[in-house]
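[step 3/7] fold_predict: job queued, chain A
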Amino acid sequence: MKIYNSATHQKEEFKPIEEGKVRMYVCGPTVYDNIHIGNARTFISFDVIRRWLIASGYEVTFAQNLTDVDDKIINRANEQGRTAAEVAEEFSTKFIDVMHRANVMDPDIRPRATKEIGPMIGMIKSLIEQGHAYAADNGDVYFAVRSDPAYGEVSGRKVDELMVGARIAAGEEKRDPLDFALWKAAKPGEPSWPSPWGDGRPGWHTECAAMVHRYLGCPIDIHGGGSDLAFPHHENECAQATCCWHEGFANTWMHTGMLLVDGEKMSKSLGNFFTLEEVLEKHSAAALRLLMLQTHYRSPLDFSWERLDGAESSLARIAGTVENLRWAARHAAGNPDVAAADALGEDLAAFGRTYTSCMDDDFNTAGAIAAVFEAVTRANHYLEDTQARDAVDEGAALAAAGVLANWLGTLGIELPEPKEELPVGLLGVAAGLVGYTGDDVDEAAERILTARADARAAKNWELADAIRDQLRDMGLVIEDTAAGSRLKHS
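[step 4/7] structure written:
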């Protein structure tokens, strides 16, 4: 398995620190509002990465924080006349709920910043003692960037270049414009905690470093987030951790590409800003995941409602193939074409090898999804051939259905469950249309299909249309296949 390391700008063979185990941290949201689909792209991407590591046999410990104290939360609370804690709790709950709806697995560890103040203070004290941080007269504490000779290695930036345009804002007591806040002195009306430097709260960059060290230990195998976090957030996290504990911080840095909407940057002013909740009200989580995974996680993703509609159609095609394979297996006539079944199995095995090699190559979901589509086409060709000859192999058809569902399931794409049983109400329709008064729903369906075929052969379009319309009112459609017609749920 190879993974692209953002810090080294190259793919590297993945070698976990502890054999068979992976410690992984992905920065969570600042909970002041509903997350947008750009945020969702990052969380879904790392959910897939985590799922593939697990499928590859690794024992994965996955941590993701909730930033529940921050300027944005405080500002939102002030706007709404609420406390910061109330705002943070509301949007923490909403975030967790919408992640469940998007089929994103819960992290193994989900620390909240406000519950980790003690470890943060301990880290800051150590940094001061080692000469990497200093307390200002106003109660703020800053990290001295120039004290870290490795600063810039995560994002590939140089300290001297960062100095261009750097300045000290009003109210700050930095010694150097590049220094960043580890602790912010309390302001009236803001949440605060006691510390050796007076009441205050942690800086944003401080939180993750302390939580990674406490819950996963340093260094970890993988640290991830959106590409917008590489600098300054991840750079500053790494600087604090390495200067405090001298153990390294993360062996592999991973960052997802930006999300565009119809080729433009998403913004409320352009009217192209969508929350994940809005999208999931109109489309399935499976289709959204399919759309997102058709682009490599490091590449920019262009979102549009048209592309999402296309993903829904593609998902329906895959689900239809899986359902057709299972139906064909149930109705196999007992004269299987062994050679055709073996050829199908060999081709699916080849597609499976492609799927696996793509996922092992820096989680190339686009290539893996392409292999799934090729397998779907191959399975449909098998059905067209063997159903026309009553030569379906039950085992081969079921195996193919299972393979397709499993490949997508490994990526967190859940196919809709087919409604395989016909409704009992069909008996009443059969009684009215063809006079069938028995209690076998399958036989009633056969009688109706025969009546419809006879009506069409006699060009009695009125009766054929009446049969179609009554079935449609029950949520059923007639599907014509090489092996004949069948009823299925619409």
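[step 5/7] annotate
Residues 426-489 form one domain.
The chain has a mean pLDDT of 92.
exit 0
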